[in-house]
Give the backbone structure.
Amino acid sequence: MLFGKYINKYYLKYSWVIIIGIIALFLVDIAQLEIPEIYSTIIDGLNGNQELLTKSKLLDLCGDMFIIVLIMVVGRMLWRLCFFGSAVKVVASIRRKMFDHCKDLPQEYYSKNKVGSLMSLFTNDLGTIEECFGDGVLYLFDALGLGTLALYKMFKLNSSLAYLVIIPLVLLILIGVIVGGYMEKKWKARQEAFSSLSDFAQESFSGISVIKAFVKELK
């Protein structure tokens, strides 16, 4: 997620939308963790416990599966609308404020500052904010909700096996932190490269206009 004094107010502004999305996300997480329970019942029945595979029991399992699928479809549609919809509104609001601010800047500002940096702010930077606001909220609460519920079910089923599963999980978290820091440095380098590329392109197009103005195409 992305935090800061300029972005935190949007979390408050769209807090009710985010809360609805979080509730829908948790319902989806709870529902999809019930699917292995249904599979285990069917597998136990195939392994010899025929009482679990009676016609009425199978109809009940099919009904439960239908309800789970319905909750997942509606829930996923809802949290996508809440998270990604609010992210689009946040970026649109920031872009509007940035554009209004750019209109009020004096001409001297554009003489001293390169246009490529401004283009980078309006394109890549705002795109990154949209991803952080939408995907960041999703990944944070999905990891908390689904991870907590999955660990609970794992320890409830077999605590010894759960401890063994956690070992590579901790390693993955450490690797993710290291790779995340490396990607952040690369992201800053990418933004600077994009800014330089935008400046080069803008200067090239301006140079073409100058060449045409002095009729120097042939030379």
About this structure: The chain is about 85% helix and 0% strand. The mean pLDDT is 80. Helices lie at 8-13, 15-32, 35-46, 55-104, 107-112, 115-157, 159-213. The longest helix spans residues 159-213.
